[in-house]
Specification:
The structure is a single chain. The chain has 233 residues and is an alpha+beta fold. The protein has two domains: 135 residues, Nucleoside Triphosphate Pyrophosphohydrolase (Alpha-Beta Complex), CATH 3.90.79.10; 62 residues, Winged helix-like DNA-binding domain superfamily/Winged helix DNA-binding domain (Arc Repressor Mutant, subunit A, Orthogonal Bundle). The protein has six helices and nine strands. The strands form two sheets. Strands 1, 2, 3, 4, 5, 6 and 7 form a seven-stranded mixed sheet that branches. Strands 8-9 form a two-stranded antiparallel ribbon.
């Protein structure tokens, strides 16, 4: 039997945790994620996604939840299995072959205030990842960001970043942060209201200098959802 066929197979669970935080320079919302600095080989001192080997006591979703809890001490509002990464050469420096089941989690802006970072954890804007990351985690991050940016055009997943009540401007800023581009406000408002995914609460935002905007909440998804992205001219 060859060395390749004798190679030990390890199943791991990693979690891409997205949150929206202000840019330190502009104050605009941007997409961030936490990374963990590895303290052992392979890839010692490299940044990596939170996660680890799957043990016999937990199923996949439980393992992802545990990773989220350990990394941020917040339970995710939205947790979804993303993809499986198992290229034979994804961890060439490791003595075993590692197949990772990757989840992604979305942290609401209200939940982000409760985040407590674990040891060796540091948050970074997705556009400024300190690479190269360990293993194939650069590929995983790119895949997760692309998937999120695609999914906001056909589902109301962006609502997971918001508190229970929000203005349409709040929602637009979430889309702009995810897509990393400015959107046309009038067109965005028209499209969102036509989808049936938000409900008017009958209340307005308080503490504003001008006419307070209406507050909305998420509504059951309509049978059709399609958002055409038009940038702000």
């Amino acid at each position: 039997m060859s060395a390749e066929t004798e190679q030990h197979l390890v199943l791991a669970v990693s979690t891409v945790i997205f949150s929206l935080r202000p840019d330190p320079e502009t104050g605009e919302l941007t997409l961030w994620l936490p990374l963990v600095r590895r303290i052992r080989e392979p890839f010692k001192n490299r940044w990596a996604l939170p996660g680890g080997p799957l043990d016999n006591a937990h199923d996949l979703a439980e393992a992802a939840n545990n990773t989220m809890q350990h990394t941020t001490q917040v339970q995710p509002r939205h947790l979804e299995q993303l993809y499986a990464f198992g290229d034979v050469d994804r961890s060439p420096e490791a003595p075993e072959r590692v197949v990772s089941i990757v989840y992604w989690a979305l942290v609401g802006q209200d939940e982000d205030l409760q985040v407590v970072d674990a040891e060796n954890v540091e948050w970074h804007p997705v556009e400024e990842i300190p690479g190269p990351l360990a293993f194939d985690h650069d590929l995983i991050v790119r895949y997760a960001v692309d998937r999120l940016r695609a999914k906001v055009t056909y589902s109301p997943i962006a609502h997971a970043f918001l508190p229970e009540e929000f203005s349409l401007a709040d929602l637009r800023r979430v889309y702009e942060a995810i897509l990393n581009r400015a959107l046309d406000p009038s067109n965005f408002r028209r499209q969102i209201l036509s989808q049936g995914t938000v409900q008017d609460t009958g209340r307005r935002m308080t503490g504003t200098a001008h006419r307070p905007p209406k507050l909305y909440r998420s509504a059951p998804q309509s049978s059709r959802y399609a958002l055409t992205i038009e940038e702000n001219p």
